[in-house]
């Protein structure tokens, strides 16, 4: 294994409150249901399809909504929190000789600004998918451009769709238990590894 790819939201960054705030601006604008802060934990037990139904939001509208959503996200970027312990994980992984990348469905500008704000300089590349279910294509592109085999790469993410994307490509994934999807949502996809604290990542890599 040579490269480790991280997801961003829910894996490296706790952006839950900012996500809720950005969504609620969209919801008020287009008359969707708003998120109440007290229901954030229960939402982790729902699939994306179940959440979209709950908030009266048709998923086919995502491509038109996402650019606005991430602009609102950027306005509150200072409120996105680096997961405690992840900066040390990145440092340790770099010292072990791994190349670190981020693949996310957030915007590249948001992620680069966050990394700069938090003094993170050991991420070699940030790649983003314009579609929330398009990560497998971005991972394949990364493998091809970096001349890597599937066995050379490990992905670290928090959502059901991350696991599905990795299985499509044929790379292993560590699912982290502090993100957007609970164990109930992801266990049917049987991720290769499950961790519940950042330090556990270092036991695997």
From TrEMBL:
SUPFAM superfamilies: HAD-like. GO terms for biological process: DNA repair. InterPro entries: HAD-like_hydrolase_sf (IPR050155), HAD-like_sf (IPR036412), HAD-SF_hydro_IA (IPR006439), HAD_2 (IPR041492), HAD_sf (IPR023214), PGP-like_dom2 (IPR023198). Keywords: Hydrolase, Magnesium. The keyword Repressor does not apply. One of its GO terms (molecular function) is phosphoglycolate phosphatase activity. NCBIfam families: HAD-SF-IA-v1. This is Phosphoglycolate phosphatase. It comes from Lysinibacillus sphaericus OT4b.31. The lineage of its organism: Bacteria, Bacillati, Bacillota, Bacilli, Bacillales.
């Amino acid at each position: 294994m040579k490269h480790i790819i991280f997801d961003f939201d829910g894996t490296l960054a706790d952006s839950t409150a900012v996500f809720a705030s950005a969504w609620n601006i969209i919801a008020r604008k287009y008359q969707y249901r708003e998120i109440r802060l007290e229901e954030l934990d229960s939402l982790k037990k729902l699939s994306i399809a179940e959440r979209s139904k709950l908030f009266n939001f048709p998923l086919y509208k995502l491509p038109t909504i996402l650019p606005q959503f991430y602009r609102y996200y950027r306005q509150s970027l200072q409120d996105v929190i680096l997961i405690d312990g992840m900066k040390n994980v990145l440092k340790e992984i770099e010292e072990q000789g791994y190349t670190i990348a981020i693949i996310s469905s957030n915007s590249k500008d948001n992620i680069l600004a966050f990394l700069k704000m938090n003094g993170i300089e050991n991420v070699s590349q940030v790649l983003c998918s314009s579609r929330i279910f398009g990560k497998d294509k971005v991972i394949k592109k990364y493998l091809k451009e970096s001349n890597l085999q599937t066995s050379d790469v490990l992905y670290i993410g928090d959502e059901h769709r991350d696991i599905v994307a990795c299985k499509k490509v044929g790379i292993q994934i560590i699912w982290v238990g502090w993100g957007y999807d609970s164990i109930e949502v992801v266990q049917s996809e049987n991720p290769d590894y499950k961790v519940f604290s950042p330090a556990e990542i270092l036991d695997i890599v």
